[in-house]
């Protein structure tokens, strides 16, 4: 459990450094070096207390002791010179273990500001240490700020995805574990924790003998090409109880030094990107390639022991790219070790990358005895796919684990389901592409359609536009719509007659990068962005193709091969009369959806303000401000019992994060404690969203709110909370906030206590307020009913398409 004081100090250290060391990775390195420096001095002090001698800061290195750095008589530049010299020479210190010398290898101070260093060292001085999981968890929190190292194609793997992969592979206490591109050692630590949990009765890992524990530690290895990552991995493992971690600086793709080493378990999220000109690997790879993702997967497959298992995060290029190296790699995997492909939703690596990824599961023993591969599609990994990746309900990961385990236990008897279906290895290789896209095999042979199955490419042709228009050709007052690859129906307008396509029948538009589909029935022009204009042959209604693609869309993944995949996508082809019946049924549903969506999108609560109502300043009708003002105090998101975060919408709904780390309740007098009926406004955001209001409308305790929100608590003797909420969401108040929000040019506008107190609120009597609230709540109930109606009829459309496949799902 990460204690709040340690986390606060880490955050404070980063805040101190950010002005001089803006790069997050460099911040982590500086904090790591300082933490280990302090840790060594603490261990020296402990040794002295027990009657022993100093070993880390002894001899000529005694002058670098921590007490000297913190001495009040040391000037700022003296401390700067001493600390800079110390970290530069520490890797030569014969009194410290080789592990620590490696940590200090190439260490240096990247700034020369004595005040910044003093403030930084003062925060480090407040850290206390023990060899517990707590310090390891604190360091993992520090590593979590690393985010993306995009230039090298490296993206920090989310913790829940790491744990999911480890759970699938299920490493055992006697098996060797390797990550050949280990980064900060997240996979290795997750595997270590997994094995300890599997060998626990009353205390973590208490069923392991000392010999078994020593063997386990010795069996966990990692490589990384970056000395900075090696340093961070060593620290991370050390703080998780590894006194002698085995992490080495090693170029997995170009060095042959460790080629003959194998492992029982390999877990990895290797770099996706390759430098210009590609990699120049040695010649021992079975697949000759210059792409890093191909070489890493090949390396992992070749370095598994005969009983070995692996889980590898891969970009979608590995799944379907048609290059020779990609096809040879997939062929080798399918023939020797591949047992499952788990498709992850695009956005798992947000906010650093929206790249679509999958997980390859290799098992050499199982592959020999199994003639099929399992394809698993995860659509919900437990977090939304926006930049903030907020936790949501309904994660598919637990079900994915169950499906995989069922398949591993009895592949022959496995029954394909909606989430997971198996495909024969011979079928995967039949075309010579060895394609690993799940949808390619989704509807045959396991799901039997009611009609003839065709590839879309056999029943459509493409239309070449007479002219593609650049954005400067767009006009707000043009005559013809311009269609591009976006999700929007119309990108702009044009008067250019020479660019116009006049369809004789409806055309299907397919976004070649976004996979968006549109049905166009009117004259239009094509924007310069990549789309394909599809004309169906006389066996296929364009409307039937459109609704089929809307119900079962092609996933976007960042690679520009979507149209090739679309042409290969399978489609049932009923007779035209049946297609017409299906289209008519769907269009009937769609009219209901469109009408309901108009209600949902256009509804706004309206209060008809009467001229005889008094208008008062908000500060006169709310309870006195809390001790810390109207803004919540800084909240520790990792350790707070329950923390509110305000959604960036005008819906009046609070997104409540229920992440629990503390056992104790929040004190009743806590200034940032929430109460039912409290209203919260966003202190800072875009001009459209600053001051957005929402209500805490649940009767629960132990919720607190952060300082990015301003709390407003209505004086119920004067104004009802829900009436106040509607007024704060009204156009007049939104306009007031927009006009009065403060912020320098180019910066985020903010509101403060004074602005909030001055908001003008029309104030009828309480009885009138109750009537207004009741009327709005009745309206909102109808709006919610329309939302449910939309979901219901969207499900009907999908069910109608599924009937064509002969499926009731």
Automatic annotation (TrEMBL):
Membrane-spanning intervals of the chain: none
Keyword DNA-binding part of the UniProt annotation: yes
Family: Belongs to the type-I restriction system S methylase family.
Enzymatic reactions: a 2'-deoxyadenosine in DNA + S-adenosyl-L-methionine = an N(6)-methyl-2'-deoxyadenosine in DNA + S-adenosyl-L-homocysteine + H(+)
E.C. number: 2.1.1.72
Protein name (record): site-specific DNA-methyltransferase (adenine-specific)
Domain named DNA methylase adenine-specific: residues: 133-447
UniProt entry keywords in alphabetical sequence: DNA-binding, Methyltransferase, Restriction system, S-adenosyl-L-methionine, Transferase
PROSITE patterns to which the protein is assigned, alphabetical: N6_MTASE (PS00092)
Taxonomic source organism: Azospira oryzae
Pfam family, one: N6_Mtase
Occurrences of domain Type I restriction modification DNA specificity (ranges): 451-591, 612-775
Catalytic class of the enzyme: transferase
UniProt cross-references to SUPFAM superfamilies, sorted A to Z: DNA methylase specificity domain, S-adenosyl-L-methionine-dependent methyltransferases
């Amino acid at each position: 459990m990460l204690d709040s004081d340690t986390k606060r100090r880490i955050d404070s250290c980063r805040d101190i450094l950010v002005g001089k060391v803006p790069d997050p990775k460099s911040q982590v390195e500086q904090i790591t070096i300082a933490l280990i420096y302090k840790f060594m001095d603490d261990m020296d002090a402990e040794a002295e207390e027990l009657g022993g001698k100093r070993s880390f800061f002894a001899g000529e290195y005694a002058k670098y002791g921590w007490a000297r750095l913190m001495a009040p008589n040391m000037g700022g530049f003296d401390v700067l010179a001493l600390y800079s010299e110390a970290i530069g020479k520490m890797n030569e210190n014969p009194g410290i273990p080789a592990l620590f010398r490696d940590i200090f290898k190439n260490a240096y101070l990247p700034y020369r500001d004595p005040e910044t260093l003093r403030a930084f060292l003062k925060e480090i001085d407040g850290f206390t240490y023990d060899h517990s999981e707590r310090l390891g968890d604190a360091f993992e929190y520090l590593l979590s700020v690393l985010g993306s190292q995009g230039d090298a194609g490296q993206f920090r793997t989310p913790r829940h995805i790491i744990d999911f992969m480890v759970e699938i592979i299920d490493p055992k206490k006697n098996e060797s574990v390797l990550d050949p591109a280990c980064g900060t050692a997240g996979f290795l630590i997750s595997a270590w924790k997994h094995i300890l949990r599997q060998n626990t009765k009353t205390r973590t890992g208490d069923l392991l003998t000392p010999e078994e524990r020593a063997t386990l530690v010795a069996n966990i290895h990692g490589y990384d090409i970056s000395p900075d990552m090696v340093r961070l991995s060593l620290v991370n493992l050390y703080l998780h109880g590894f006194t002698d971690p085995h992490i080495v600086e090693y170029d997995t793709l170009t060095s042959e030094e460790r080629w003959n080493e194998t492992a029982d378990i390999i877990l990895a999220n290797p770099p996706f990107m390759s430098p210009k000109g590609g990699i120049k690997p040695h010649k021992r790879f079975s697949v000759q390639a210059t792409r890093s993702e191909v070489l890493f997967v090949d390396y992992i497959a070749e370095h598994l022991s005969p009983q070995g298992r692996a889980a590898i995060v891969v970009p979608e290029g590995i799944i379907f790219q048609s290059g020779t190296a990609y096809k040879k790699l997939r062929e080798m995997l399918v023939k020797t070790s591949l047992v499952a492909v788990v498709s992850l939703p695009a956005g798992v690596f947000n906010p650093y990358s929206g790249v679509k990824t999958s997980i390859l599961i290799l098992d050499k023993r199982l592959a020999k005895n199994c003639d099929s591969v399992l394809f698993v599609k995860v659509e919900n990994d437990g977090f939304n796919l926006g930049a903030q990746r907020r936790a949501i309900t309904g994660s598919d990961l637990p079900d994915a684990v169950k499906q995989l385990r069922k398949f591993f236990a009895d592949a022959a008897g496995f029954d394909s389901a909606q989430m997971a279906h198996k495909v024969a290895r011979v079928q995967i290789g039949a075309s010579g592409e060895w394609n690993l896209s799940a949808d390619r095999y989704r509807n045959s042979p396991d799901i039997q359609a009611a009609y003839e199955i065709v590839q879309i490419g056999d029943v459509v042709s493409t239309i070449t536009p007479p002219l593609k228009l650049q954005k400067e050709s767009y006009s707000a007052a043009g005559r013809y719509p311009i269609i591009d690859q976006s999700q929007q129906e119309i990108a702009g307008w044009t008067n250019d007659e020479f660019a116009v396509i006049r369809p004789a029948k409806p055309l299907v538009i397919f976004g070649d990068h976004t996979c968006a589909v549109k049905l166009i029935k009117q004259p239009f022009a094509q924007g310069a962005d990549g789309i394909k204009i599809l004309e169906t042959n006389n066996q296929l209604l364009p409307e039937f193709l459109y609704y089929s693609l809307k119900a079962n869309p092609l996933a976007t993944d960042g690679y520009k091969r979507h149209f090739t995949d679309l042409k290969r996508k399978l489609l049932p082809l009923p007779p035209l009369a049946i297609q017409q019946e299906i289209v008519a049924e769907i269009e009937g549903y769609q009219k209901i959806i469109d009408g309901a969506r108009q209600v949902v999108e256009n509804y706004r609560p309206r209060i008809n303000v009467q001229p005889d109502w008094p208008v008062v300043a908000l500060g006169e009708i709310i309870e006195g401000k809390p001790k810390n003002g109207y803004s919540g105090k800084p909240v520790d998101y990792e350790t707070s019992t329950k923390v509110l975060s305000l959604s960036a919408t005008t819906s009046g709904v609070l997104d409540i994060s229920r992440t629990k780390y503390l056992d104790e309740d929040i004190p009743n007098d806590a200034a940032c404690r929430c109460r039912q009926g409290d209203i919260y406004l966003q202190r800072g955001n875009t001009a459209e969203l600053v001051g957005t209001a929402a209500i805490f409308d649940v009767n629960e305790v132990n919720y607190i709110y952060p300082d990015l929100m301003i709390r407003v608590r209505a004086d119920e003797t004067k104004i009802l909370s829900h009436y106040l909420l509607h007024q704060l969401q009204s156009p007049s108040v939104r306009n007031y906030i927009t006009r009065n929000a403060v912020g320098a040019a180019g910066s985020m506008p903010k509101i403060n206590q004074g602005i909030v107190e001055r908001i003008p609120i029309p104030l009828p009597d309480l009885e009138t307020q109750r009537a207004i609230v009741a009327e709005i709540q009745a309206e909102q109930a109808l709006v919610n009913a329309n939302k449910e109606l939309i979901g219901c009829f969207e499900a009907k459309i999908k069910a109608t398409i599924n009937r064509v496949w002969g499926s009731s799902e």
